[in-house]
């Protein structure tokens, strides 16, 4: 945000002589020569030499206001703020009614981050000179900086009373109003006043755009930035702000164009390159996004954000080693950055470096024990290490950290807790604790009832614990949320079969195939149920369709052989069985236990095929 400010005013006290006579060099004292010398040196930016001159003048005359005052200025310019304040303290002791001295002392205190004392100094200057506009600006800016917004607004109002046509005062007042959420509409009105006074006020147009962004009126924000661009088309800042706002509107292609214009005007604009990376990432153009973020990190290699963004872009481009390298750069800059350490652990997990991932995520947790994403990541790592009990405990930590109220009110936290509950449920499935799994899926659905994947998991878990009607309802929800879910129809078929509702099972498997004609497993499942119904010819037709879709599907060949055995068609049975065994020799081990082949166990051709 652009604000009217005043730098440390170089108010040097020169020596004025009002004598009518012409003065000779001898008439000027050594003290006065040193003051004049110091002033000339400051103008030439030779601050150390100027300081020496003023110090020498003070040695000659300790009560020299000009010596202490100008010494304070030179010390301030050298960045020696405490010494500057000390010198200016001496100046105001000598001339306590000098408003410029109090003003400059306020500047030095500001530079020394002693804001309350600085405000007191400006107040002293204003007491001496109530219409001292420069001091009012400095006081207002400082009050705004330390969060005393109402007082800052009152101070800018005093400037406006003194100078009603001061567009800078209206702009500064608007900036402060914009920091107060309930007064942002007033801020826009104040910017309008500034623009009314100075229609080509570039800074006010940009600030007005920023205020519109704060109230999420992105369309009017873009219009404000466009006006700023019209005033100064070669300034990159408005183009960059326009780019970020278009990205907020979801107009990512237009945003990319705006950012590219910004970098054309200023190739070293970190924010603009970062913006290009942002919108390309949203567009799924991850390789290009990486290039943009790399440029941002080259411009500002000390930027933690540049390296973290680059790491995220590499991750989405499936370049996990490069992502880790970028995160390590970021971690060097901020060793306590638990978020980035967590991201690094995730990349190590993707590379199946689980031991390294575990060590890394433990570091993140030690830095921030209540960081829920870290516990979720730890759960993932432990799951991959086969330590299911530990994974469940890790997911539990996330669930405990995020309250139900937070999950409901804050979508981002709700998503994290939902993931923990869902993953905990899957961990219970891996441990074959299906009752507990179903309960966790229910908890996850309380947060996100529209997750078809969780409804699917719930249905599968419910089926495993015999809650078949509940399972059917869950699969129906999957189909409602995702009509193209062939897996849900297939699972419904299994449940109908378990319920003995065989004709409904056949219809469910047919629906699965209608949704996905290449779903060869559902065709095989249909055949099995038709066999149960004694419809062996129809079963063989289903097996044949399954085989047509996937000729290497050994189960369909084997089941087809069983159907032919039940139909007493020996040749076709042996042909199908031979194909099944060729695809999966393990079938030989089970043949003697399969009742469908009971009539062939002593048949020489059957024995020869099975090797028994």
Features:
mainly alpha; elongated; 612 residues; single chain; 35 helices; Serine Threonine Protein Phosphatase 5, Tetratricopeptide repeat
Question: Can you give the helix content as a percent range?
Answer: over 70%
CATH class of the domain at 1-146: Mainly Alpha
Structural class: mainly alpha
- What kind of sheet is the major sheet? none
Poorly predicted runs are: 4-11, 14-27
As a whole number of angstroms, the C-alpha radius of gyration is 39 Å
CATH topology of the domain at 1-146: Serine Threonine Protein Phosphatase 5, Tetratricopeptide repeat
Could you say which overall geometry the principal axes of the C-alpha atoms support?
Answer: elongated
Total DSSP E strands: 0
Mean pLDDT: 93
Distance between the termini: 87 Å
| Alpha plus pi helix count | 35
- CATH superfamily label of the domain at 1-146: Tetratricopeptide repeat domain
* CATH architecture descriptor text of the domain at 1-146: Alpha Horseshoe
Percent strand equals under 5%
